[in-house]
Amino acid sequence: MIYVHVHHITDRVGAKRKAVSASTQGEVPFTTNDSPINEMWVVVICERIRADNLDLMLCADMGTEPADFILSSPDKLVFVHVKCGGAQHRPESSAGALAEVGGQAIKNLEILTTMRRDLKPGNWSIMSSHWPKPASVPALHERIRLVDGKRFTNVGQAEEVRENKLVDIWNMIADRRASPAVSKEIWMIVGNAFSRNHFETQLRRGRAAASESLQAFQLIDSWQSTAANNDVALKIFVSP
């Protein structure tokens, strides 16, 4: 359930990286309020979902967001939640490092699993705008990163074209979240804030473990239970 971030990219993933690099030509790398999320994040994310099968990638960040990214293939729907920490030294394993991103993930279970086709995210009104904000410099022109397995192109940056494609995308998401043949997953990606090695070391100490690590265990256990009750798989990506 808890994974270590990929640091060494294989040749096979390297080929994907080149494809992603080409798809973002002329735009800036992804950024958040905290720190940059460069194209390598996208490569790792694509690889985890088996990039050859990935046909949808939507940047859903900002506002009352359902997730930072929504990824999908014909048999999988993934809501990705990302938080980048600012640890000056090697991170440990406190509950606080996970709390924000985990809270965001769990409170959006409904929109990941609902059968209601008309339920859209709270930030739907800004989905057609540049990311992270319309006036941001720099910014991504298109939140739609991939559709039907190809990069979304909007040569004239026409808002009507973008809005129509967003409707098509959300109809696809609604179909897939309602289908029992499509597995649902939550990915929590926590960069430079939580160490798997530190967490495992503390848990091996039993009652002598650091209180913060025990609290993290309780949080993860609670999230895992909640996700499982909704037939959703939970995966957490952290630092080594």
From TrEMBL:
This is Uncharacterized protein. It comes from Paraburkholderia atlantica.
